[in-house]
Design brief:
Elements: E1 11-14, H1 17-25, E2 39-43, E3 46-52, E4 59-64, H2 67-76, E5 82-83, E6 89-92, E7 98-103, H3 119-129, E8 154-157, E9 163-166, H4 168-177, E10 182-183, H5 191-206
Length: 209
Amino acid sequence: MRGGVQAQVPVLSVGDADAAGRFYALFGYTGQPGEDGRTRLHCGDLTLLLVEGTPVPATLHLHVDDVVAIAEHLAAAGHPVERAPGGECRTADPDGNTILFTRALEAPAPQAEPDGRPAPVRRAAQVVARSDGAPGHCQIGGPRGEPCTEPAEVKLADSWGDTVWGCLTHADETLVNARGAFLATEDGTGLAAYLAARQARTDTAAVPG
């Protein structure tokens, strides 16, 4: 969805911003009160906004690098920590807000071949190399319209039905910059083969035993 949410900042109402700031420093947050009376705490790219006022109960769920170390720091500072069987921990900040924390999420590393190309792109090129359907040269060309003499190795398509053949370099560039582009492989698992197989099963089922 284009034009959607790009970032979000949790806002906590606290009775004492200084006390709350010391508590969240145990998680690695740092910051100072601003001219508007609000305290913006930062931890890496994350922001937490503290506003002094009547505390309103809230819950924060944090993903941390070292659950054990954070729990020890909290306990040493006088903040009891409850441990759940799944590894999640629970505590409360000075204003009674519930703080849940668990191990940081691990994003899977993108699969790539030894030459650095993403595995799906490399596999698509290998399929093309075994077929005779590709044109002789890359049809994408350079960013200023200059022709490309490299062999066409990958076929790209979009949801509008447009297709183009390209070399691996320009195909990579197109996949990154053209949001709707995707690899159009012809490895026997496309719609034509799928629908043909369904038709074959239907015909078989229609034959009386």
